[in-house]
Amino acid sequence: MKDSQLTHTFENRWGIYSATYYSPSDKQDGIHPTIVFMHGFRAQKEWYSWIGELLASQGYSALLLTVPSARLPDPNQWSDGIKSAVDYLLNKEYPLYNETSPDKIGVMGHSMGGLGALMAGSEDNRIRCIVGLAPAIIPDVFPIPKKLYNISSPIQLQIGSNDGLIPAENVRALFDSLSSKKKSYVEIRGGNHIRFVDKGIVSTVGEFLSRSGALGRRFRDGRASITFEEQHSVSGNNFVEWFDSHLKH
């Protein structure tokens, strides 16, 4: 564990969530905007260290979460965890209270975590900005809550053009229907689903993504035509710029 990272836990009706807190590199320069990040289905926060490290390097505090039951296909576990994380950040009795500005909190997530971030953002007005990386917009598996369409916070949706798990057209259709006046759609040409995670863990999840029958249907990710580094660069540049625009300026 790096000196700039600390571990935390909090609890809600689903159980105990573990969290890794990434401190910004210029921590002495006052309170920074805070981003809460949630992983995807059957994943964990350790698979997304590139996101925590990138946000910290750009002057953000980042709280990466792991849900109690990553194999439970209920997006409410993810969205409730994000809202509970905001409670934790803003509770005077907990250590991160003095490092969190209540009007500069953003959320993001990947896949199931992306759907959870959208759901939390539609329910909690303390969340000022939202980013969904390949959010699990699969209407025949997860009915889309109507309140998602009424999100008023700035929202960015990203998807790889070769994503075989979450059809890009599903994400685009949701984006077109959003009522928010501040929204951004990023389709990463040649990107797929798995390349939003750390490169080093691909061997751990590759079998699941290529052959899994999860959620009662067969999922198979598409073949990417760009590298992990290229997808991370496009994704990171876009979500950092989005957060900068709405949480810093």
Short structural summary:
The protein has 249 residues and is an alpha/beta fold. It has helices at residues 49-57, 75-89, 112-123, 168-177, 202-211, 228-248, and strands spanning 5-12, 15-22, 32-38, 61-66, 100-110, 129-133, 155-160, 183-188.
From the alpha carbons, calculate the radius of gyration and give it in angstroms.
17 Å
So, the CATH homologous superfamily? Alpha/Beta hydrolase fold, catalytic domain
Shape: globular
The CATH architecture is: 3-Layer(aba) Sandwich
Number of self-contained structural domains: 1
Percent of sequence in beta strands:
15-25%
Sheet having the most strands: 8 strands, mixed
Spell the H/E element sequence: EEEHEHEHEEHEHH
Mean pLDDT score: 91
- The number of strands is 8
Regions with little confidence, pLDDT below 50 for 5+ residues = 210-217
Order of neighbouring strands in the sheet with most strands = 1-2-4-3-5-6-7-8
Output the CATH topology. Answer: Rossmann fold
CATH class: Alpha Beta
Question: What's the helix count?
Answer: 6
User: Distance N terminus to C terminus?
Assistant: 32 Å
- Percent range of helical residues: 25-40%
Structural class: alpha/beta
